[in-house]
Amino acid sequence: MKKTLRNRIPYDHTRVVKKVLTVIMLVITVCLTSCNKFLDVGAPHDRLGADDIFNNSEKATSAVVGIYSQYMGTSLWYSSGGITVFTGLSSDEFYNTNTSNSSYNELRTNSLTSKNSLLDFNIWDRAYKNIYQSNICIEKLRIADQLPNGVRKQLLGESLFTRAFVYFYLVNIFGDVPLILSTDYRHSTEKGRDKSSEVYIQIVADLVEAEKLLQDSYVTSNRVRPNLKTVQAFLARVYLYTQQWDLALAKSTEVIESGIYSLDPLNKIFSIEGNETIWQLMPVQPSWNTTEARQLLPLSTSASTLGQIALTDYVINGFEAGDVRRNQYTVSKIVSNKTYHFAQKYKAIAIGTVSEYYKVFRLAEQYLIRAEAYAHQNNNQLAADDINRLRDRAGLAKITGDAQNIVTLIEKERQSELFAEWGHRWFDLKRTGRALDVLKAKQPDITATDLFYPIPNSVLLSNPFIKQNQGYE
Q: Judging by beta carbons within 10 Å of its beta carbon (0-12, 13-18, 19+), is residue 331 exposed, middle or buried?
């Protein structure tokens, strides 16, 4: 297996914006810095200070809001575009135009090694630091008897949601992972991997508890902190992935029929104020929009300059004739007589005014979840009705309930609607068991062991209780 050049993307300590991210971020940052690598941590130095912080509404709120700021880096972390780029290369969405990037080459050819620096610094290390931060908030908020009850419930619900959110991506990328639910570093240093089924049980438990704590109303403008419907939208996705069709249908219906959201015109979906947005992340670096846009689009108008991540012909040819999503969400550039296509759901690449936030959950996915749940219950006409809401917006003819193989049609619709968003394509192919059949056209020697990423080598070295995924050294 070839060795990986460890060209790390520079670490970026995101700056905090406005008054909501106060001195607590310094406390949390000290704690996270002391952690170094996950499962190789020292005793946190801020435990006593945290007791005082979580008995003050403003400071406790800043601690929880700080979790979201930690998601939004200017580097390609898992939470700031990394999931989209990395899994898009692993699936059939992207290819890297610069083939000298060995880390991207491994992703594109499904030949990852455990020494690939992207796995550690950009995914695993960042994710477990975020989990540790959520765990601090959960532990302290459970005993924060001096906080007003409404504040405590809101913050605890958000913290449970964020822990579930990170674990969802870890389990879908790596499979079995250590399930860390406390800040006890002594326990963490001797923790092996838990079965993915057990991680999913905890994800659901966290979300079900959060569902009892949060309200429909958003506590801030622009939907940058999750509400009750965000939790239910996430539950709908989790139930879909675990093939609990009744529950997926019920939760997606609660979101769809809440009256809070509506499908936006294509040119407004990714604007800050789109009504299709269920939850989005606000950039925290002044004058910086989304890292994803700067990764997926050419940064120069020069005729010889490419973007580093291009769309495959499979994505481009997958759009039906007349599908306006192709023109709205992709852009082409000819360099050296070759045409390249790039994703442009996010368009703001200039350093300047912040005009785009990072969408995490939106209403269109809920229609697709409900359609798939209906289809698995043989309610094909209702499935078709939900698909047609998106097809109509895309300028396409409606399908009927008697269409053959409606589940395949839903997969195709998910591909056209959700491409280049949060790894949907990679995860869809895996959860439906179609990954090997589909991806052999791209990589003939792909095997089942390639469908989960290897545990980073640095993690294996720091904790002998963690074992490597099958098929990797």
A: middle
Alpha-carbon distance of 70 to 85, in angstroms, equals 19
**pLDDT tens-place string over residues 417-437:** 999 999 999 999 999 999 999
Helix axes 406-418, 424-431, angle to 10 degrees: 160
Cα gap 134→362, rounded to integer Å: 23
What interhelical angle do 82-90 and 424-431 show, nearest 10? 50
Query: pTM, whole model, 2 decimals?
Result: 0.90
β-bridge mates for residue 169, sequence order:
none
d(CA 362, CA 364): 6
Q: Which of 198, 209, 144 is nearest to 176 (CA)?
A: 198
Nearest to 88 by CA among 415, 329, 347: 415
Give the Cα separation of 207 and 193 in Å (integer). 22
Find all residues with CB under 8 Å of 312, minimum gap 6, and list them.
Answer: 92, 93, 94, 95, 442
Two structure tokens written together for 386:
């939900």
**Residue 447 tokens, joined:** 């095997």
